[in-house]
Amino acid sequence: MPKNIIGSVLVVGGGIAGMQSALDLANSGYYVYLLEKSPSIGGIMSQLDKTFPTNDCAM
Amino acid sequence: MEYAQAVPLKYAIDPDECIYLQKGKCGNCKDVCPADAIDYEQKEIKKTLNVGSIILSSGFTPFDPSKFDNYQYAMYPNVVTSMEFERILSASGPTHGHVLTRPKSSKKKDAENVKAPKKIAWLQCVGSRDMNRCDNAHCSSVCCMYAIKEAVIAKEHVGDDLDCTIFFMDMRTHGKDFERYYDAAREKHGIRFERSRIHTITEVPGTNDLSVRYANEKGELRNEVFDMIVLSIGLESSKQNIALANKLGLDLTPQNFCKTSTFEPVATSREGIFVCGAFQGPKDIPQSVVDASAAADAAGAILAQARNTLTRSPEVVPETNVIGERPRIGVFVCRCGSNIAGIVDVVAVAEYASKLPYVEFSTDNLYACSQDTQDNMVQLIKEKNLNRIVVAACTPKTHEPLFQETLLNSGLNKYLFEMANIRNHDSWVHKNNPELATNKAKDLVRSAVSKVALAAPLAEAELEVNQTAMVIGGGISGITTAKSLAMQGFHTHLIERSGQLGGQALNLYHTASNEDVQEKLSAMIQDIEQNKKITIHLNTELSSVEGFVGNFKTTLSSKRKKKVLEHGVAVIATGAVPFQPNEYCFGQDSRIITSLDLDKKFMDNDPILQDLVNAVFIQCVGSREPDHPYCSRVCCTHSVHNALELKKRNPKMNVYILYRDIRTYGEREILYKEARAAGVIFIRYSVNQKPGVVLSDGKILVTATDHVLDRPVEIEADLLTLASSIIPYKDEKLAKFFKVPMNDDGFFVERHAKLGPSEFATAGVFLCGLAHYPKPIDESIAQGQAAASRSVTLLSQKTIHTSGTVAKVNPAICSSCGVCLSICPYSAPSFLDAKARMFRGKAQINPVLCKGCGLCVASCRSGALHLQGFDNDQIFSQIFALSEAG
User: Fold this and answer.
1) What is the DSSP letter of A43?
2) On the CB side of B862, how many CA atoms lie within 13 Å of its CA?
3) What is the pTM of this model?
4) Is residue B828, in this structure, part of any structural domain at all?
5) A5 Cβ under 8 Å from any chain B Cβ
6) Cβ contact A49–B93 (<8 Å)
């Protein structure tokens, strides 16, 4: 294996997109650093009440 | 701490607001913190990370409307933003989900004026599609849908007599199942849609009510007073995003979103850096989730050689042996915010549960699924020595794995668990009858408790994952998936029913951003034809599928020859077809064509295009109609782009687009703006008054009622393009092969509309492209990559665990009749070998093959078969518990 390839990824932003990227990568065998500027992950989606079209709870 | 469900659930000090850090005084928190966790000395630490790749998912910032003086958002308390309204609706928000007007100040007199609103208005496109007052020319894509949702839910909270009005320009409900939601909002929920852009909001003197003056569709001026006005604010790139992009040297679009191309939708202008979510462009949750997986795939593809070099395995909590122990049941009743607690008296249910047999502990939680509750649950299981758990909440379909993981973390076997669905089966369906709903919740909990008391720990079988993938459909998304999987190191078979790769993309001229589709497509095809890890099967269809996740056995048939393919995952990328119109005189004149026919004329450089005087487009042909009640998503952008192309070829040509709503979502809106600037004439029609087309003396006469002039216009068209819809194949056979569902329209149904858009509920089967829903090339490619990424999460594991809920034989009473062998669709039962040490000739079940369907159990005449986790005694005790009076 070439030495210069690093098996880790930096994901900038812990909203729904960042979390999904991080999960996919971690489950595929890559080490992930998830960077989030606020004290908790979840982003805008965690502020939403319900989601359409199924009216599921956003949490 | 931002909110009680935050992850991680830890307090943090905001240094900008902290009096101690700013002025060196206060220090209260340090004094009162019993854990001695406050440290004012912590300094910013700079860390350097060496990584193989970067993904930017830094999102968007909601538009700040306080800069608009005409809406007086900063001044009038009852002008709120849509984000604020989300919090007002939320059970964990400031009003606990009660929709209330806001007081002008905290004074007692003002606080008394707070009331439940009777009339609420939503103003669309605040900070979107607006060059006059802000520089956001783009459409934010999501506001139409969230406004409808907020209106529907506001009515649910306040009551049916709440008057909800949405003021809009074009209603853009272009996502999967969105048009139905819009139709239901209008027809079932009675939400009023008013096509008008409101200029100014004023406060009614002496009150906090709000007055708006607007012109309705007929041009009549109206004054209307509302209790509350919600500004549907748009999405824009934050200053931090722009700074980050500049620091990294990334190109941005004129709208300050991260620049990408149609054929590499998650690649930034810098190699190794990828982008997903709303930083790439305004988009909704499912599209963000698709992009996120696509970015993970793109990042993974360049690091494939270093897979598993830096990862570590999580610590496994050793399982406590509970066999022989008396059941000690813990019951957790979830409020789900107000979703359950708004109807069901959860405190009474928890109190009731505590008195049931074997229940040691019961409580209620605001959100049982939140991180704080999970941690608490682990603590309680250990503290109270609980050995069986019941969660009364929502559906096990989405939440069972989460709670089972909590059990594992506390050392319990994950099958010592039961869910009672008191939301979907109770509070949602009995919302008009809270008392009965509470009783029903008690019944459901009692039944779950009686079942879990009999639960036993179950073992899961381990099975190897075949590292080969099969992609069905050789269109642009299938090609993308195959290429991605091969790049990640997995051998992939690409199955195409026709004799040629490319699918519908073969019919397309240019993308909305002017890339040559044929040039790019042939490069992609060439690329995968040369890839040694991809085997292409043309003129091939599936004739049968056996097996399950990790070990599928598919029989392919090609020219009457059959071949068996073994693979670990399957990706369905079977696409869709263009609808052949049955109206507007289609087929009666060669100058009446579909959008794809026009693309063909562009590709062929047809000379007729130069000399047209009048070119007309009719939108929504076969879309948003009773037969196909969905929006085909791509046609507006396609026609607007083609109209511009015609104008480019001959600026003197008159180009008309007859439309219902123009749905150039996201940055596609810029094209719409360009088209208007280029002189393309847009005429709106309503579905009740569709344009007329007649052929008379060799002329094509198109009539429509002009919405500005409010009078009929007649156009003699030299070319009439019908923007016909995209319709699915409705491939029942394929759906049956993989046991995957289709919706009423015939598109495949994904695992979860928001969170699982590129996979099925059936494990090991994935989805992308038009088979999921109509979408343009960039989104098809992103989903192709996403399906690959989701597949890789499975393929990169050497082994997976099957479910513990499988059938088991009691060989002592088996009569060797063989019914189970003949009835099982998965070939799980077999007879014990004649050489076996014991029970020769009796049935046995292969737990790896068994799917736990229970067919053999029901058919066993000797009662020798049992479905573990759903054994007869458990089911009977549930039934008896239900039949007991509460």
Assistant:
1) G
2) 16
3) 0.87
4) yes
5) yes
6) yes
